[in-house]
Design goal:
Blueprint: E1 9-11, H1 16-25, E2 33-35, H2 41-47, E3 54-57, E4 67-70, E5 73-77, H3 82-87, H4 89-94, H5 96-102, H6 108-113, H7 116-122, H8 129-135, E6 139-144, E7 147-152, E8 157-159, E9 162-163, E10 170-176, E11 200-206, E12 217-225, E13 231-239, E14 246-247, H9 249-255, H10 262-275, H11 286-304
Parallel strand pairs: 1-3, 2-3
Antiparallel strand pairs: 4-5, 5-10, 6-7, 6-10, 8-9, 11-12, 12-13, 13-14
């Protein structure tokens, strides 16, 4: 049964400071539910699964918009839409995996309204931007009436749809480090050259069709070879294979320090199956997700370096 819109209340703050005051004040009387593009909320309202009766409309807050480069870190306002991410020249050049994920999120109408902050706050393990942000080691900027703090994406998920944010905090921005920054020096090592080779980025979503569907499995990865021919950076993140978006730590450890080969790829695939815990649900089944996750990892490795396919 659809929710009756006449029973809902919407607060429209003047600016971000006003929004934070309204959100904080609402905690005792029934928390205001933050509302941005509404692409998820309107689906729940249409189905009758109302997350609340009182909403905080953030769409007009200019402080939450914009994409800017700050000392090598790209900062995206929480209201940055996926169309803006998909088309932004700096995102496409420096973070092609994020641009690729943005192009897979729903139809263009959804990309024109759906926001990066909303995709994060929704905290769905099937959120398509989340594996990329996790692989890129993004940082979430949260703000409340008490001030601003930063939450590393690696520490953001506490459980299913449960984020490490306080009830009166809003996501205001996401910052992305340079994916091609030099790795930390080992003890006694000397830096050679100005910059290492670029990290190879990857994103792939598998759903019931090429686009406009909720993912059965999504994988994002970064991989870089050092000057000695060994992997010195390996990050693999997956969605829809556990209660939360996760990093495949076992697979990453197999790859780090290894020279590309089919044997290493096979070992990483075996380790990946120990990292994930998919379930059977309406969209897919456990064994299919396990098989596809392994296939996506091998595809990523072959794209990063063809030697991962050589025996």
């Amino acid at each position: 049964m659809r929710a009756a819109l006449s029973t809902l209340e919407v607060a429209r703050p003047r600016d971000l400071a006003h929004a934070l005051k309204l959100l904080h004040a609402s905690l005792d009387a029934g928390r205001l539910v933050p509302l941005a593009g509404g692409t998820d909320l309107f689906v729940t309202l249409n189905s009758g699964l109302v997350p609340g009766r009182r909403f905080l409309d953030l769409w007009s807050l200019r402080e939450l918009r914009g994409v800017r480069d700050q000392a090598g870190r790209l900062v995206l306002g929480a209201l940055t839409t996926f169309s803006e991410i998909r088309e932004h020249a700096l995102v496409r050049r420096r973070y092609p995996a994020l641009a690729a994920a943005a192009a897979e999120i729903g139809a263009w109408q959804v990309q024109n309204r759906g926001t990066l902050g909303g995709n994060i706050a929704n905290a769905s393990p099937a959120g398509d931007s989340l594996p990329v942000l996790l692989a890129l080691e993004a940082v979430v900027h949260a703000r409340s009436v008490r001030g601003t703090r930063e939450v590393p994406f690696t520490a953001l998920f506490r459980g299913y749809r449960d984020l490490a944010l306080e009830p009166d905090e809003l996501i205001t921005a996401v910052s992305l480090p340079d994916p091609d920054a030099p790795p930390p020096l080992r003890a006694g090592a000397a830096r050679r050259g100005a910059h290492p080779p670029r990290a190879q980025q990857f994103f792939r979503q598998v759903g019931t069709r090429r686009a406009q569907s909720i993912s059965k499995v999504a994988l994002a990865g970064l991989l870089r070879l050092g000057r000695d021919g060994r992997v010195d950076l390996a990050r693999v993140a997956l969605g829809s294979v556990a209660p939360v978006t996760l990093r495949a730590g076992r697979a990453e450890r197999v790859l780090l320090g290894a020279r590309p080969s089919a044997a290493v790829a096979a070992a990483a695939r075996a380790a990946l199956l120990e990292d994930i815990a998919p379930i059977d649900d309406i969209r897919s089944d456990r064994e299919y997700r396990r098989r596809v996750s392994g296939n996506l990892l091998e595809q990523f490795l072959r794209v990063a370096d063809p030697r991962f396919a050589r025996r």
